[in-house]
Amino acid sequence: PSFTALLTTRTQVQKEIVKKHNELRKSVSPPASNMLKMEWSKEAAANAQKWANKCTLEHSLPEARKTSTKCGENLFMSSYPASWSDAIQNWYEESRNFVYGVGPKSSDAVVGHYTQVVWYNSYHVGCGIAYCPNQESLKYYYVCQYCPA
């Protein structure tokens, strides 16, 4: 997709992001008994977009991702304009390093993006994307924030 087709001010993009999150949340194993359905949050999206625009490839400070509650955050960087579904799927792929009821399969396993996507009591998601021309190769910067964290 083109960069403008990925902008989260577009209703279609918001729907894609929410739909992909809800599909993945439904597919957790074992099935969750108390998983809340994700909805779009304009407030979280504004915070995520503000952070994406800085092109700082690290997490924002916790106080920069507050709505009425504390929010978590996932970051994704790409050398090309990947679809939002691909970015979200990439976070979810960490599930292979995670065992329900145990946690990460090893001490160096990365699972934080996966657990953020499927955190049962997060029900608001808001995302933003920026093009960062000064980055060497990963010029597309995706940020999603999840509330409550």
Automatic annotation (TrEMBL):
UniProt keyword Disulfide bond present: yes
Domain of life, source organism: Eukaryota
UniProt GO cellular component terms: extracellular region
Pfam families in the cross-refs: CAP
Entry keywords, A to Z: Disulfide bond
Keyword Ribosomal protein (UniProt): no
Family annotation (InterPro entries): Allrgn_V5/Tpx1_CS, CAP_dom, CAP_sf, CRISP-related, SCP_CRISP
Name by which UniProt lists this protein: SCP domain-containing protein
Family: Belongs to the CRISP family.
Residue intervals of the SCP domain: 12-149
